[in-house]
Each structure stands twice: as C-alpha cells, then as structure tokens.
Amino acid sequence: MKKLTILILLAFVGMAGISCNNKSKVAQTAPAPESAVQPGKPQYADSLLMSFERTPCFGTCPVFVVNVYKSGYATYFGKSNSIYPGLHYAYVDVASIKEIIKTADELGFFKLNDQYDGGVSDLPYHITVLRNKSVVKKITNKGGNGIPEGLIEVERMIEGQFRDVEWKPVAVK
Q: Would you say 64 and 77 are in contact if contact means Cβ atoms under 8 Å apart?
C-alpha cells in the first residue's frame, strides 16, 4: 500500500512537471495577436486629462462616456440613445481641452463639492472628471435645483467641444 501511494505521488509530480514545461514553451513561442493593437490607439502610456459621462434617465436621454488623454487621443462610447453608438475614437485639439480646464479652474470647479443632487429622479447624472496639473477632481451632478453655475458652464463647454468632433468607429474583431 505504501509503494502504491509513492507511485501515485511520483506520477502526479511527473505530470505536473511535464504540464508546467509545456505551458512555458507555449508562452515563450506564441506571438502576440495583431488584433491586440487597435487603430488610433496610442501605443504608449497616456494620462487621462478629462472624462465626461451621462447616465440613463427614465426617457430617451443619451447615455455616453467621453475620455480625453494628454496626447489628444479621445474615446467616445455611446451606450444608448447616443448619436454614435458603440466605441469611437478621435484626436482633439489639446489646447482647447486645456482652455476648458483653465476656465473650470477660474470658475472654481476644483473647489466645488464632489456631488450635487437636485432631487429630481428622472434626470441623468453628469459625471465630470478633470485633471489640473496634479489635482484630479470628480463631480457627480444629478441636476435640478442648487447646482452651481460654474459647474453648469463647465458641462456646457465640454459638451460643446465634442459636438463637432469627427468620431471614427473602432472596428470590433
């Protein structure tokens, strides 16, 4: 019985060694798929400069997320009721994005509360994230009464900036 246990144990150890050797050989020889590189996507680290998101309401509000990076690379993901459904990309003028951030700073955006809820249940959330040097500020705005004018102005500027961008669809493979 003792010999049988030792034989079974040796068999498992042997199979584990063979299995591990095969995995490492596959990992070493398998080339990276070309489909991993997306068109238009920067191939280097790129910091998020700005993000703007609209969430669903009880009606037909557009639901989307826009992200803009320091290089000017931007993504638009239209979830529902949006002009551009699915994932899109574009390059935007970084100077105009920095101007929005500068204006947001002048309007006191970085000193506002992190959340505003005007008490209206049917309105979508507007989630705005801006980076100004080393400061990152995220504000979730439900709309309604009591929303600071500076926040409303920043949201309008951001939405206006992306209205005329030529978004290109990202091909899904």
A: yes
- Cα gap 134→117, rounded to integer Å: 27
116, 139 contact by CB (below 8 A): yes
Nearest Cα neighbor of 80 from 67, 66, 62 is 62
pLDDT (tens digit, 9 = 90+) per residue, 12-28?
Answer: 334 334 334 443 333 33
128 secondary structure, DSSP code: E
- For 130, the 3-state DSSP assignment is strand
The whole-angstrom separation of Cα 122 and Cα 99 is 32
Q: Which is more confidently placed, 42 or 131?
A: 131
Q: What is the pTM of this model?
A: 0.71
Q: Phi-psi bin for 170: left (phi > 0), alpha (psi -120 to 50), beta?
A: beta
